[in-house]
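Why Copper export regulator? Reviewers of the renewal asked for a concrete example.
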Amino acid sequence: MFKIGEFSRLAQVSARMLRYYDQCGLLHPDRVDHFTGYRLYSAAQLTDLARIVALRDMGFGVEEIAALLPCFGDAAAMGAALRKKERAVRATIADEQTKLERIAAFCGALEKERRDMTYEVKLTSLPAETVLSLRDTLPDYQREGELWHRLCRYMAEVGVACDQGGYSIYHDEEFRDQDVDVEVAVPLAAPVEAPPPYSCHTLPAIPLAAAVEFAGPYDGYAAATQALATWVEENGYRMTGLIRGKAIASPADVPSPADYRTQLQVPVQKLHEHGEKIER
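Here is what the prediction returned.
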């Protein structure tokens, strides 16, 4: 029998962790001396401890380790458990890789914002436009590209030409993490027949709109939106409708995301100095 310090040296596991495994029920001492209270371990327990450490280092939790220890003689059960853990670890790696990509993109956006901090917001009027559109509920905003692919594929099938850059319209009254209501639309020179789920309709004219352009990948949307909101607030206007994006130069026009150009548009109305709308 070995005292806890001796067993700790043999196993290269701290006495603190041995006490923890005892409290968790993973590895109790072989016996406890009734007179001294010393925990005493046997040489045979080194195998059990090595298995506990191995499973811990693979990412298994205490409850999982407790369930797996009796399975070391069952190759099929151990294999199934290890394959399940492998899938979970790979999923975690993929999630972390996505986070790394987002960090890199955000750093790039910060650098671009540092180089070009000026957004020129303009007041303009927007004419009514005939559009061919596709509107659907998507799992999240990142899936908008799927709508564009469907719409462009349909347009190619029926031979409809796009008059100019398309629109992205977000119909939810507030930001949603999932199940988002998105419409993509392309202007047409003339109306066409469009079977559901496609629609040919007219985007109404907007007598007064605030508009701002930004260049580069679509992750610049947030900074441009902030610039637009700041301008609206500081200049005594209020938003009266949905923000929409208009593609000035899109993936269909230019190969590099650095060359994308997007204009954000939102209908606005002037306020009195006390905050009331001025009717127009």
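The domain at 121-270 is CATH 3.20.80.10 (Multidrug-efflux Transporter 1 Regulator Bmrr; Chain A). This is the kind of structural detail the renewal will allow us to pursue systematically.
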